[in-house]
Amino acid sequence: MCKFADLSDRWVVVTGSSGGIGRAIAEEAARAGAHIILHGTRKPADVEACCDRIRQQGRQCWYEPCDFSQQDTWSPFLDRIWDRCGTVHGWVNNAGVDLLTGAESQWDYAAKLRALWEVDVAATVQLSKRVGERMRQTGQGVILNIGWDQADRGMEGDSAELFSIAKNAVMGFSRSLAVSLAPTVRVNCIAPGWIKTAWGASASAEWQQRVLRETPLKRWGTPEDIAKLARFLLSDDAAYITGQVINANGGAVR
């Protein structure tokens, strides 16, 4: 009997999978039967531990580091992956600059903007274009990008302004790339809302209250909530869905 959102024997790449949403997507895809390529530049021990857990499920998995802020690394990164597995069926662009809890949080506005443009926007765009062309040559594939539910309606503060610049670019690009690559390759974008990753776990009482106030389901989202949606979109059960930005935000409307 076929299972829902089956990814058996497919190769899925998840960038930015050292923790949070990326790690959850990788582990959920493995539970669906996929073999996984993990990517990350931070916390390599955590990435290797995730790899071990996936291998214990009987899946193939390896860790492929790459600094996306350096453009000359992108093509060799793709070549190493394709040389290793032959083809890729699903590609998730989750890598991004951590402006909230990483070292980048101490940078000035201009430095943060440059980093977001290099990693969140340029790398996502260029990797998607190159991956999409390789997928089209093999006659199949799914690209999944990560946006932000408040990017297109606005939120106060420097970090929100910066994320809006980057994520609106990714969301708009995803819609257009889907048209360019159709009908062979599907492209969608998940726009998470308040997800309890590292920042959410340590957020102040004021922020905890704000999240509940703005979310009709009255709870934080979890990385696993996003991962289950990603699993569906990567699978053939979503075969008629492309060019969509899908909010996963507990019903929030502001």
From TrEMBL:
GO terms for molecular function: oxidoreductase activity, acting on the CH-OH group of donors, NAD or NADP as acceptor. Gene3D superfamilies: NAD(P)-binding Rossmann-like Domain (3.40.50.720). InterPro entries: NAD(P)-bd_dom_sf (IPR036291), SDR_fam (IPR002347). GO terms for biological process: fatty acid elongation. Pfam families: adh_short_C2. Belongs to the short-chain dehydrogenases/reductases (SDR) family. This is SDR family oxidoreductase.
